[in-house]
Every structure is written in structure tokens, then in C-alpha cells.
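The protein record passed on below.

***
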Amino acid sequence: MLPSNTLRRVHHIALNVRDMAASKQFYGELLGLHELTGDEVPKTLVNLVAQGKVANFVTPDGTVLDLFYEPNLSPPADDPTQQFTRASHLAFDIAPEQFDQAVDVLKQNQVKLDHGPVTRPTGRGIYFYDPDGFLIEIRCDPLR
């Protein structure tokens, strides 16, 4: 068993995507994640990025989101509410004062919503789908 605190943080999350352009637009432009380019791209992925088979984004806390182009990727299920077998959703944290703006951006861009916004003792959240049907959440802590 690993000692407590051996694992420091999530290093990266890798998602397979069917439409790289749509996914890059979604994560980069719509959600505002920084796309790694040039010398920022990990050396092991430079050729795949150049071939359009991989795109890398980074969150403000340094977590890398890798998108792997899989053009023949079938949907997880005909029913978009049927979650992936081993993953429930990917959640992004946002400042409470920016939450309503994020909700407005999703609605203005006609992003398919699953549910929300919801308010809980732990904060607020909204759930929606990326272009490949993966469930995404934007959440914030409660206002203080």
C-alpha cells in the first residue's frame, strides 16, 4: 500500500474524441482552457499533435487534459444520460461570482445540458455534455 500523500495530484486526464475540431473549440474557446502549443507540448506528443491526432489543454491549476482523436468512436450509448462505464463526469471549479456567467455562456452556445443549475450545501453546479457525450460539470463553492 502506498503511504498517505504519496500521490500528489491528478497529472492529466485523457479523453477520446470523435471530432477534434469540435472538441478543441469546446474545451479551448467555449470553456477557455489554454491549448498547449509549440514548446509547451510534451516532447512525447509533438508528432501526434502535429498530425492532428492529439490536442493538449491545461487548466489554471496545471491539470492537463489530453484529447485523442478517434474518428470511429461510437457514442457511449444511444441515451445521452447513460453515463460511461467507468467515469461519471469531469468537474471544473469556478469562482462563485463567475458561475452565472458560465451558465449563460453554455446556454448562449446551445450546449446540451443534462441538469442544473443546482444549489447544494457544498455549492452550485451545472451539468452538460461535451461534443462526444461526456458529462462535464462546472461547480463553485458556496458564497461566503
